[in-house]
Structure formats: structure tokens, C-alpha cells
Amino acid sequence: FEFTEKNKFGQRHPIETAEKVADALRRLDEYLLQVGTNEDRAAFDRACQQNLSVVSSSHKLMFLRCELFNVDLAAKRLYNYWTTRLALFGEEKAFQELKLEAAMKDDMIAIELGIIKVLPNPDEEGRTICLFDPSLQNRELYSRESLLRCFWYCFHVALERESAQKRGIILCVYPRNAKHSQFDRGLAKMFSDSMKRCLPIRIGSFQVCHPPTFFVIIFPIMKLFLGAYLRNRICVNGGSDEKVLKKLNSCGIPSSSIPEELGGEVVVDNETWKAWLKERKQSE
Questions:
Q1: How far apart are CA 117 and CA 280, in angstroms?
Q2: Which residue from 95, 81, 104 is spatially nearest to 280, judged by alpha carbons?
Q3: DSSP string spanning 195-237?
Q4: How far is Cα 93 from Cα 96, in angstroms, rounded to an integer?
Q5: Considering the entire predicted model, what is its pTM?
Q6: Are strands 116-118 and 169-173 parallel, antiparallel or unpaired?
């Protein structure tokens, strides 16, 4: 594959053609037939046996795009994905469609809180934006695993936009109203492990907006969990609302894609989020 020039986040993207994509999928299928220990591939093989629709060519293509069409790395991520999905969702739901009334049906308490949301409008390059507001956490209402399943669901929704598969997503973290007690080291590790090893996502950038005073305490822990590649994607935006908005705009995120809380135009209150979930249930 030929690649584009680096963008403002330092990323280069493969220049896809139908022929090259088809050839990469063929080589990945051949690789998956021949490579991998029984332990590595067990969950993937079960997915193929129980519900072929969840391991379609479009599913595999997300992993190729995530790994810039490196077949070996895509296969390893695909195996890790299904091993983790089986452990996280359990025998009953792991091989169901990742939909609100299927694999997610027991996680509605966590997802309705809107701790992580998928925003409707992408950035200038077509990256889907996900908003994470840790101040909305209430660990008495759900388990870590339930919230992690919500992250998985939202990232899969984000990847429904093909440009997000090709160019990545933006994770906008808004901890302005969070308390130190809401920082969950265990969840942070589970979340970072999923991003680094399993989920077929490329992170364009982490935009941390309006960090609280205790952020200086947890930031080194976050960076440790994220690893070198994701650390280099972090942008910390402090100061006035106008300054933060200007910084996001300079990163290619227009005001029409930014939540009202950050000075933008997107309404992301509880009522709007529940209406979005209702629409998703109907469309899925």
C-alpha cells in the first residue's frame, strides 16, 4: 500500500483500492486458516462456528485497517479481540450481535448514564468523536465489566462510519466535574488493554479538556497504562472555555462537532442521549 502524508496527529493512512483490499482480505483468510495456536484462536474459531455474521469480511477489514494492512498484526488483534470478547461478555452473549437488545441487553443501566457517548458529527477528516465524562460514574450501579462493555459498544458504533475505520477516532475526555474518588485504576487498565490489544480502532487523538486539579496525580498512571503509542496522542487542553474551544478547532474539530459543555454546538444532555439510545434500538 502507498500512504498519505502525515496529518497533524502524525498519522499516515493507507491509500486503498478495491483490488488491494480484496487481496489483503484473501491473505488474512489464508493466514487465519494456517497460523495460531489452539489457545490463541479458540474463541475466534467458536465465533466462526456459532455465528458467521459476526466474523464477516467487513469485520475482518476493520482489523486490517487498524493495523495498516499488516496481515500478521491484524490476525493477532483479531484473535485477542475474540478471546477478550468471550471473557468479557460470557458464553451466552459473546457471539451475539453487539446490539442494545442482544449482547448489550444487561448493560442498559451503565450505558444510559452516558458516561461514554458517540457524538453525531465527525472531525474534518471524518473521525468519529466519542465523549467520556468520568464525573457521571457511579460504581454502585454497575460493575467494571458492564462499563467496559459499554465502551466496546460505543467504539463499535463509532466504527460504523467507514472514515473512522480508515482514519481513526477521537476520544474526548471531559473530567472537569469529576472527583478523585471516581478515578478507577482497574477500569483504566482494562480500558487501555482493550484499545492497545483488542479493539480494531486507531486513536487519532486523546483530547483531555478542562482537567481538574487532581489530574496531575492520575496523569502519570494514565500514561503508564496507555503505552508509548497512545501517550503520543494525548493533548491536554486547559484554561478558559474559549481557549479550549480554539485548541480543539485548531486540531481539526469544528464547533459543530463539539459538545456544548466545551463551547461547541452539540447537545449531549441526558434526554438527548436517551433519545439516541431509543433510536439505536429501533434501527438495530
A1: 13
A2: 104
A3: IIIIS---EEEEEEES--TTHHHHHHHHHHHHHHHHHTTEEEE
A4: 5
A5: 0.93
A6: unpaired
